[in-house]
Amino acid sequence: MRPKKTRWVKCEPGERCFKPRCKPLSKLEGVYLSLDEFEALRLADLEELKQIDAAGLMHVSRSTFSRIVASARKKVADGLVNIKVIRIEGGCCKIKKGWMKK
C-alpha cells in the first residue's frame, strides 16, 4: 500500500469532540474523523467549493478529495443517526497559514 500524501488543512489541531447529551461519555461509542476529512467537509459543504478547487487547496487529486469527503460524510451520518461521539483528530496533514477567506 502506498503511503498517504500529506494533505493541507486550514483548521488548527486541537481537541474537537461532539457528544450527545443524552448519555454519559463512558456509555457512548465513538466515530473518529481525521483532520483531512474534517477539512474536506468544511471546504465542500460549508464553503461550497467545487471538488476540483477544494482538492487543489488540500494538494490532492479530485478523486482523492471525493473519497475523503465521502468517508467523512458517512462517519458524521453514522455518529448522528446512531448517537455516537464524533471525535476529530489525527491524519497526515499540515496546517496552512494565511488561507483564503470567503
Mean pLDDT value: 82
| Coarse shape | elongated
Could you say which structural class the secondary elements and strand pairing correspond to? Answer: alpha/beta
Distance between the termini: 37 Å
Percent helix among the residues? 25-40%
Order of helices and strands: EEEHHHEE
Biggest sheet: strands, sense, closure?
Answer: 3 strands, mixed
Round the Cα radius of gyration to an integer and report it. 14 Å
| Percentage of residues in strands | 15-25%
Tally of contiguous helical segments:
3
| Order of adjacent strands in the largest pleated sheet | 2-4-3
Low-pLDDT sequence parts: none
Summarize the structure.
This protein has helices at 35-46, 51-58, 62-81; strands at 7-9, 16-18, 30-33, 85-88, 93-95. The protein has three helices and five strands. A three-stranded mixed β-sheet has the order 2-4-3. It has a two-stranded parallel sheet with strand order 1-5.
Q: What would your notes on this structure say?
A:
By secondary structure, this protein is an alpha/beta fold. It has a domain at 1-8 and 30-92. It has three helices and five strands; from the N terminus they run βββαααββ. The chain has helices at residues 35-46, 51-58, 62-81; strands at residues 7-9, 16-18, 30-33, 85-88, 93-95. The chain has a three-stranded mixed β-sheet with strand order 2-4-3. α1 (35-46) runs antiparallel to α2, α1 (35-46) packs across α3 and α2 packs across α3.
